[in-house]
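[Discussion] Sanity-checking designs against the backbone

I'm trying to build intuition for which residues belong where. Below is a C-alpha cell string of 683 positions. I'd appreciate it if someone posts a full sequence so I can compare it with mine line by line.
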C-alpha cells in the first residue's frame, strides 16, 4: 500500500491534536468527578504548551528554511501549521465553554471562584492583608517603555499587562507596564475564608488586580486595568559545541538558553485595549507564522492540575491505594523470590515499593557485587537514588546511565548525577547521538545467579502513582545476559552487539517487529491462528504503519490500544475492517507497551520501553523483552483484552479526530478497564 499524506498516513502532529482533544472531551463528561474534570483541563493546557514549545517550534523552523532542496518539507510544514492553528482555534472555544460549565457546576457545589469585583469588604480586607503578608516586595512591575523585548521572562509563567493614568493630568494619556504573577510562591489560587457553608477561591490574577494601588504606591496613578497574557517559546536548546566544556556544563548552558528561545505563541485577554496589546506584541518579536490567539480573562490553565479541593474529596475519584503484592511483601528475600520464578508489578495498581525493595535489599546484601541501572526521569526525593547511593557506600560497584537530555528534566537530572558522583557511583551520561530511553536494571550476584528488571516506564515513584507501567523481574539467564549486554553496548556504542532474547533499538528491534508481523501474514495464509494485539503510546513510523496495513489487507485482525499519536486510518475499504484502534483516557495515564502475536497458536508476548516512532526505533536505545512465564503472559493478555473492550473510557481512534466513545455490543454490560483491573488485583 502506498503511503500518502491525508490518504493513508495521518501526520503525527494532527494526530497529536486529536489525542489532546480526547483529554479535553474527558473534562466535559458529566460522569467524571467535578474536580477531576478541572484537572483534565489543566492536563490539556499543559500538553498544549509543550506541543507548541517542541513540535510547532520545529515546524516553524522548517517553514522558515530557505534551502531550495527543502521546498517540499517547507510546503508540508506550512500546511500542517495552518491546520494546527485551525484546530487550536476551534478547541480553544471548546475549552472556554467547558471551563465555564465547570465553574458554574462548582458554584452549585458551594465552591465559588470570585473575581476582584465581587468581593465584600471583609473579603477585600483579607486579600489586601494576604498580599502584604505574603507578596509584598515580590511583585515588581516593568514599564513597557523601559524594554525592547521580553527576552529574560519565563514562558512557564503568566503575566498581567497593566494600563493606568496619572492623577490630575489634563491630557489623559495611558501608561503601560507588565508584571509576572508570583505563582511559585503561593500557587495560582488563593483560598478565602469560608462563609455560610460556602468555599471561596480567587485567581492570583485577581488578587494582584485588587492590590495594584499598593503595587504602584506613591506613583499617583489611578484607573488601573489589568489583562492577562502568556506566551510560549521555542524549547529547543542551544547545545554548546565547545569541546573544552564537559557534557554537564554543555547541558546546563543549554537549559539556560531555552529561556531565551523565540516566542511562537501568544494568548491574551480578548478585552485588552488595542494600544496595550500592541505594546505586548511588539516586545515579543513575532513573525507571520506565529500563533496569536484572543482568549478569556485567565490563561496558563495548567494550574488547574493543582486546583484546591476545599476538603471536597467527594468531588474527586475515590481512592485506589496501591496494592502491595502479598508474594513480594513478606520477610523472605525478594531477590531469592525472583530467582525462584519470574515476578511482575503493574503500577499504579501495584505498589512501586516492591522495586524499591529490590534495590534496598541489593544495597545491603553481601551476595550482591554490582548494580547497573538506567535512569531517564527521577522523582524529586528519589528513593531509587537513595538506595543506589546506599549500595555504593556498602562497597557495591554501582553504575548509573542517566539521560541528561530527558526533555524538561535536564536540570533535575544534572543535580542528581552530581550527587551520585559524589557518593562514588559511576555515572554515564547517555550516548552521543542516541537517547537512552530503556528502563533496565541488572544486579550481579557472587553466585552468578544474576537478576534483571525490565520496565515499560521510568524508575520514578511519582510516575508510578499516575502512569500504568509494567515491570518484569527475572533471573532467566538468557534475558539477564542480554540486559548486561545492553549496558556494555551503552559503554561502547555503535559496536556490533547481538542480542539473542531482547529486541534492542537502534540495532534490530524494528526488523524483528517487522518479521513478527510477516510471520502473522504467513500464518494467516496457511490457515493458522494469526492476530496482532498491541498496547502502545504512539504509532507514527511509516514502515510500521505500512506493515500493519499489509497485515490487515491479508486478513490478519489488528487490534490496537493507542493512547497518543496514531498515524493510521481505520475506515479504508481495502482494510476490510480488520484494523480496530481505541485510545483510553481515564484516571491513570496509559503508558505500558505490550505486544502480542498469535504466532500460529504459540503466542509470543513482549513488553518494553519503545513506541513505534522513528525516534524510538532509530534514534534511541530501547529495550523490549519477551515474557515466558505463563501467569504473567495471561495477565498481560488480560490487560490488553480489557482495554480493547472498554466501553466507558475508550474512544475510537480512526484518523478523523471525532473521538467517539466505544459502545458496548448488544447484551454487554458497560466496562471500565482500569476499574476492572484494580478489582482483579485487589482480589
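Best answer:
Here's mine. Compare freely.
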Amino acid at each position: 500500500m502506498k503511503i500518502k499524506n491525508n490518504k493513508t498516513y495521518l501526520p503525527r502532529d494532527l494526530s497529536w491534536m486529536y489525542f489532546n482533544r480526547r483529554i479535553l472531551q474527558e473534562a466535559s463528561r458529566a460522569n467524571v468527578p467535578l474536580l477531576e474534570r478541572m484537572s483534565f483541563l489543566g492536563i490539556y493546557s499543559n500538553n498544549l504548551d509543550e506541543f507548541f514549545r517542541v513540535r510547532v517550534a520545529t515546524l516553524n523552523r522548517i517553514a522558515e528554511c530557505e534551502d531550495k532542496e527543502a521546498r517540499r518539507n517547507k510546503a508540508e510544514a506550512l500546511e500542517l501549521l495552518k491546520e494546527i492553528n485551525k484546530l487550536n482555534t476551534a478547541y480553544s472555544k471548546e475549552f472556554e465553554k467547558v471551563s465555564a460549565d465547570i465553574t458554574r457546576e462548582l458554584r452549585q457545589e458551594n465552591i465559588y471562584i470570585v473575581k476582584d469585583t465581587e468581593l465584600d469588604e471583609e473579603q477585600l480586607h483579607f486579600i489586601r492583608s494576604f498580599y502584604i503578608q505574603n507578596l509584598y516586595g515580590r511583585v515588581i512591575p516593568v514599564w513597557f517603555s523601559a524594554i525592547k523585548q521580553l527576552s529574560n521572562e519565563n514562558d512557564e509563567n503568566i503575566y498581567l499587562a497593566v494600563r493606568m493614568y496619572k492623577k490630575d493630568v489634563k491630557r489623559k494619556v495611558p501608561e503601560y507596564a507588565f508584571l509576572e504573577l508570583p505563582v511559585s510562591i503561593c500557587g495560582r489560587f488563593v483560598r478565602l475564608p469560608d462563609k455560610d457553608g460556602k468555599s471561596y477561591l480567587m485567581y492570583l490574577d485577581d488578587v494582584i488586580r485588587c492590590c495594584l494601588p499598593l503595587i504602584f504606591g506613591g506613583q499617583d496613578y489611578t484607573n488601573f486595568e489589568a489583562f492577562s497574557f502568556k506566551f510560549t517559546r521555542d524549547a529547543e536548546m542551544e547545545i554548546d559545541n565547545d569541546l573544552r566544556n564537559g557534557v554537564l556544563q554543555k547541558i546546563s548552558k543549554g537549559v539556560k538558553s531555552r529561556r531565551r528561545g523565540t516566542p511562537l505563541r501568544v494568548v491574551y485577554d480578548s478585552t485588552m485595549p488595542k494600544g496595550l496589546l500592541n505594546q505586548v506584541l511588539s516586545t515579543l518579536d513575532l513573525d507571520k507564522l506565529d500563533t496569536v490567539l484572543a482568549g478569556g480573562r485567565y490563561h496558563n490553565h495548567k494550574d488547574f492540575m493543582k486546583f484546591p479541593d476545599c476538603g471536597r474529596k467527594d468531588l474527586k475519584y475515590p481512592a485506589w491505594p496501591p496494592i502491595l503484592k502479598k508474594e513480594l511483601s513478606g520477610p523472605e528475600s525478594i531477590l531469592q523470590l525472583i530467582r525462584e520464578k519470574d515476578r511482575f508489578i503493574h503500577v499504579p495498581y501495584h505498589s512501586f515499593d516492591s522495586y524499591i525493595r529490590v534495590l534496598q535489599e541489593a544495597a545491603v546484601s553481601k551476595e550482591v557485587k554490582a548494580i547497573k541501572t538506567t535512569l531517564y526521569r527521577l522523582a524529586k526525593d528519589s528513593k531509587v537514588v537513595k538506595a543506589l547511593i546506599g549500595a555504593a557506600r556498602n562497597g557495591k560497584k554501582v553504575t548509573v546511565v542517566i539521560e541528561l537530555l530527558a526533555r524538561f528534566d535536564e536540570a533535575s537530572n544534572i543535580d542528581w548525577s552530581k550527587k551520585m558522583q559524589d557518593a562514588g557511583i559511576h555515572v554515564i551520561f547517555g550516548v552521543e547521538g542516541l537517547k537512552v530511553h530503556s528502563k533496565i536494571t541488572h544486579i550481579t550476584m557472587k553466585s552468578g545467579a544474576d537478576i534483571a528488571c525490565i520496565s515499560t516506564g521510568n524508575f520514578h515513584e511519582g510516575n508510578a502513582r499516575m502512569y500504568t507501567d509494567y515491570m518484569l523481574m527475572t533471573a532467566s539467564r538468557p534475558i539477564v545476559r542480554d540486559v548486561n549486554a545492553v549496558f556494555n553496548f551503552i559503554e561502547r556504542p555503535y559496536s556490533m552487539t547481538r542480542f539473542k532474547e531482547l529486541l534492542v533499538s537502534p540495532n534490530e528491534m524494528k526488523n524483528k517487529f517487522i518479521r513478527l508481523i510477516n510471520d502473522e501474514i504467513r500464518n494467516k495464509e496457511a490457515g493458522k491462528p494469526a492476530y496482532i494485539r498491541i498496547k502502545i503510546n504512539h504509532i507514527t513510523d511509516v514502515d510500521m504503519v505500512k506493515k500493519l496495513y499489509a497485515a490487515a489487507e491479508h486478513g490478519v485482525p489488528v487490534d490496537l490500544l493507542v493512547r497518543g499519536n496514531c498515524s493510521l486510518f481505520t475506515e479504508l475499504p481495502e482494510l476490510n475492517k480488520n484494523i480496530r484502534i481505541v485510545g483510553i483516557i481515564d484516571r491513570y495515564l496509559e503508558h505500558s507497551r505490550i505486544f502480542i502475536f498469535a504466532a500460529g497458536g504459540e503466542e509470543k508476548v513482549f513488553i518494553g520501553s519503545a513506541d513505534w516512532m522513528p525516534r524510538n526505533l532509530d534514534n534511541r536505545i530501547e529495550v523490549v523483552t519477551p515474557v515466558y512465564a505463563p501467569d504473567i503472559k495471561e495477565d498481560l493478555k488480560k490487560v490488553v483484552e480489557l482495554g480493547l473492550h472498554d466501553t466507558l473510557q475508550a474512544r475510537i481512534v480512526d484518523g478523523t479526530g471525532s473521538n467517539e466513545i466505544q459502545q458496548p455490543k448488544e447484551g454487554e454490560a458497560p466496562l471500565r478497564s482500569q476499574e476492572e483491573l484494580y478489582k482483579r488485583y485487589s482480589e
